[in-house]
Specification:
The chain is of the alpha+beta class. About 30% of the residues lie in helices and about 30% in strands.
């Protein structure tokens, strides 16, 4: 494991923004993650773990600690149970499940992130989420290596304990899938990818910037203006952002996508500050019109 210093983080996130990391390490094996965690603890410095950098906004100030790029990618199969390294890309996991004829995770086909990132944010779409499949999660923290049960992880809509002051690293997790055929899993995965390619804009983006609104928690002012029948229990924030007049709005080179208003795009040389200011203005306009506070899916670093 090689620890580097003063590494530019722009190439390590999908927005292409951010400053330098004081310390930096590329982890290819689980032991690298463990060693990096130990290094941070011995130095008494903060650390963050990035996979594909697809759901973060890194400040131009950079990160005054250790940035760990998680490139672990091991996948093991035991009948219908997979053990997946946290750094494995969702594309790799999808490809593996197709080759093994295992069904259940097709809803994440085409998502540009890692398995660990999907666990942290309980990623999901098209009537599924990662929590539906998880058996347990292996982590390392100040108490050593241990397994966190699904119940202990406290998964909820786009959320888990790992998103809130978690002082450890997700190493891997086990998930339960269902036996099927390569042809059926491939067909379903390709269908999801096709739907996503139609819905999602191209360009440098984190994906959906804000969480969708759960109908059960929506304020009356919002429910009086939006038809919720036929929805999956969530109101798309892209729809609210569009109706609040934000589509195409810009701060510098940061733009609310004109294709899907749920996305903020870096159209050129936007800074993290540009993107954050634009997101705050979007939140204000949506709140003024609908009385609902949008919550970012993106983590600010």
């Amino acid at each position: 494991m090689k620890i580097e210093k003063d590494i530019d983080l722009k190439r390590y996130n999908t927005y292409g923004v951010g400053g330098n990391a004081r310390y930096f390490v590329l982890a290819r094996e689980e032991q690298d993650l463990i060693n990096a965690f130990t290094f941070a603890k011995e130095k008494n410095i903060s650390f963050i773990v990035l996979g594909k950098g697809s759901n973060v906004l890194i400040s131009e100030k950079g990160f005054d600690g250790l940035v760990i790029i998680n490139n672990t990618r091991e996948i093991k199969k035991d009948n219908e149970i997979l053990s997946v390294s946290s750094g494995a890309s969702l594309a790799l996991v999808t490809k593996f499940t197709i080759s093994e004829g295992l069904s259940g995770i097709e809803f994440l086909a085409g998502v540009p992130g890692t398995f660990g990132g999907a666990i942290i944010g309980n990623a999901g779409c098209y009537f599924g989420e990662i929590a539906d499949l998880i058996l347990d999660v292996e982590i390392i923290d100040g108490e050593g290596m241990k397994k966190i049960t699904k119940k202990e992880a406290r998964f909820s809509y786009r959320d888990s304990i790992f998103k809130h002051d978690f002082q450890g690293i997700i190493l891997s997790a086990r998930l339960k899938l269902n036996s099927s055929t390569k042809e059926k899993v491939s067909e379903k995965s390709l269908d999801i990818i096709k739907k996503r390619s139609i819905k999602d804009p191209k360009g440098r983006t984190s994906g959906s910037f804000f969480k969708n609104i759960e109908v059960k928690n929506a304020p009356k002012k919002l429910l009086s203006q939006v038809e919720t029948r036929g929805m999956d229990g969530h109101i798309p924030t892209g729809k609210l952002i569009d109706e609040a007049g934000c589509k195409g709005m810009r701060v510098g080179d940061a733009e609310v996508s004109t294709y899907n208003a749920g996305f903020i795009i870096n159209t050129g040389n936007a800074t993290a500050d540009d993107i954050k200011k634009l997101a705050e203005e979007v939140k204000k306009r949506v709140y003024d019109k609908f009385g609902v506070e949008l919550e970012p899916e993106v983590r600010y670093l």
